[in-house]
Amino acid sequence: MSKKVLLSANEAVAYAAAKAGCTVASAYPGTPSTEILEYIAKFKDTINCEWAVNEKVAMEVAIGGSIAGARSLTAMKHVGLNVALDPLMTYSYVGTNGALVIIICDDPGMHSSQNEQDSRNLVKFARAVLFEPADSQETFDMVQEAFEVSERFLVPVFVRLTTRTSHTSTIVDIGDDYAPRKAERKPYVKDIKHYVQVPMFARPARIKAEERTRALRAYGCETPFNRIEMADTRLGIITAGITYQYVKEVFPEFSVLKLGFSNPLSSELIKQFAAKVEKVLIVEELDPVLEDQIRALGVTIIEHQTELNMMEVNPMRLMALRKEVLGDIEISTPKRADAGLPTRPPVLCSGCSHRGVFYMLAKLGATVAGDIGCYTLGAFPPLNAMDTTICMGACIGNVFGMEKAGLPGRKCAVIGDSTFFHSGLTGILNVLYNGGKVSTIVLDNRITGMTGHQENPGSGKTLSGDDAPVTDIAEVAKGMGFKRVVRVDAYDLKALEQVLTEALDAAEPSVIIAYGPCRLAAKLMNAGTFAVDSAKCKACGGCFKLGCPAIERGEAVADGRRFKAQIDPVQCSGCNLCTQVCKFGAISKI
Amino acid sequence: MKTVNVSLVGVGGQGILLTSDILAKTAALAGLDVKKSEVHGMAQRGGSVISQVRFGDKVYSPIISDGASDLLVSFERLEALRWRHLLAPVSQVLINDMNMTPVTVSSGQQAAVADLSERLSAEYPGALYIDALTVAKNLGNTRAMNMVVAGAISKLMPFELAVWEQAMKERIPANLLDMNIKAFEAGRQLLPAS
Question: From CA A444, how far away is CA A15, in angstroms rounded?
Answer without folding.
Answer: 34
